[in-house]
Design brief:
Blueprint (H helix, E strand, L loop, with lengths): L4 E4 L5 H10 L3 E5 L11 H10 L5 E6 L4 H9 L5 E4 L8 H7 L4 E7 L4 H9 L5 E5 L19 H10 L4 E4 L7 H8 L3 E4 L4 E2 L2 E2 L1 H12 L2
Parallel strand pairs: 1-2, 1-8, 2-3, 3-4, 4-5, 5-6, 6-7, 7-8
Antiparallel strand pairs: 9-10
């Protein structure tokens, strides 16, 4: 198995960032303002964590902005290595973000609802660096844009991984008990965890250790 890239999301402090990195994370998710979900922190704290972590660790700004100008404005407050757009763009294009921020990776989240997600992923893959498949529902009155702790249909995610030519992260309800099944079915580039390594909302050292050990033993 190729090296599995692990992103620990919903990081709430420098201490949690250090815990995740020590356990083996190669990327950290830093959650900006969202309509719902866990892990939301201030832009000031996101910027502070992004500066403090080692240079080889990727830092993802999770933004719920859907207007390209506002996404760029949000990014300039935090200066992470990566922008993770958790909802579909409503104004502007990914190419405009690339032009304005050529040094920044763009990750587009796609919430896997049904088989129509396959064609959406193929189209999106033409314009971004990475796709992240999650289990939210942006069609609800209060949008679910991540951190649900739910597993979606991994068979659909498997097809997406097979059909696109860019890296794909898998998110949604992944934990120590199901991670090997997730890897074996989907074969993603990376995994993204939030609730699966937390207890009462806090990053859990034991769960982190168990998770990375499970992957190592695969």
């Amino acid at each position: 198995m190729n090296k599995m890239h692990i992103k620990i999301c919903c990081i709430s402090s420098i201490k949690e960032a250090e815990m995740a990195i020590r356990a083996g994370a190669s990327a950290l998710g830093l959650v900006g303002h969202m309509p719902s979900g866990p892990g939301i922190i201030s832009d000031e704290l996101i910027a502070k964590i992004a500066v403090e972590v080692p240079k080889h660790i990727e830092t993802f700004l999770l933004t719920s902005e859907t207007n390209v100008d506002k996404i760029i404005q949000h990014y300039t407050k935090v200066n992470t290595t990566t922008i993770q757009i958790v909802d579909a763009l409503t104004f502007g294009s990914h190419a405009e973000i690339k032009k304005a921020l050529p040094h920044v990776k763009i990750v587009q989240v796609l919430h896997v609802l049904n088989e129509s997600s396959i064609e959406k992923a193929i189209e999106i893959s033409k314009y971004v660096d990475t796709i992240l498949l999650d289990s939210g529902n942006p069609n609800l009155a209060t949008k679910e844009l991540g951190g649900t702790g739910r597993v979606h249909n991994w068979e659909i995610s498997k097809i997406i991984v097979e059909k696109v030519t860019i890296p794909v992260f898998l998110a949604g309800g992944i934990n120590t008990s199901n991670v090997l099944k997730a890897i074996n079915i989907v074969n993603p580039y990376g995994l993204d965890l939030c609730s699966g390594v937390r207890t009462n909302g806090n990053l859990d050292t034991h769960k982190l250790t168990s998770f990375f050990q499970a992957i190592k033993n695969n």
